Amino acid sequence: MPTPSMEDYIEQIYILIEDKGYARVSDIAENLQVHPSSVTKMVQKLDKDEYLNYEKYRGLILTSKGKKVGKRLVYRHDLLEQFLEVIGVDEENIYNDVEGIEHHLSWNSIDRIGDLVQFFETNPDYIKELRSIQQKNEEQMEK
Is-above-0.85 flag for pTM? Predict the structure, then answer.
């Protein structure tokens, strides 16, 4: 099982490969705002744990295990963004909130959140009702 830090790297590598077709140490470092030397150390660990294959100066590719984990991590991140949007979290707070909570929820909780998001998507009237409740609560807080 990958650590939260490993998950961040796998997720970022997966996204880069999906978007650009490759992931370089420099791109990973830039996107995660860490030093390239830190990326190299983590990539070597991920290689040892069979999430990817890394050859110095040649690049890296995700293994089938790494792809599976990466896809699931991207799904989790996107789902949590959807969930926070549905429940009315301000857009400017969503990314940081997701980053703060995504590693602290079980996969069972993630799946239940997915069910709830799906419920709201198929029943948009409940979103309107939720917004109405939120507006009333905000008005009461201002009093």
Answer: yes
Q: Is 85 part of any known ligand binding site?
A: no
Distance, CA of 72 to CA of 37 (rounded, Å): 26
| Residue closest to 113 by CA, chosen among 86, 133, 93, 135 | 86
Q: What angle do CA 116, 8, 74 make, to 5 degrees?
A: 40
Domains of the chain: 4-68 (1.10.10.10), 74-142 (1.10.60.10)
Query: Is 103 labelled a binding residue?
Result: yes
Question: Does residue 143 register a pLDDT over 80?
Answer: no
- Whether 99 has a binding-site annotation, put simply, is yes
35-64: per-residue pLDDT in tens?
Answer: 999 999 999 999 999 999 998 877 899 999
Q: Read off the tokens for 100.
A: 């703060």
Whether residue 139 is annotated as binding a ligand: the answer is no
How far apart (Å, rounded) are the C-alpha atoms in residues 16 and 34?
16
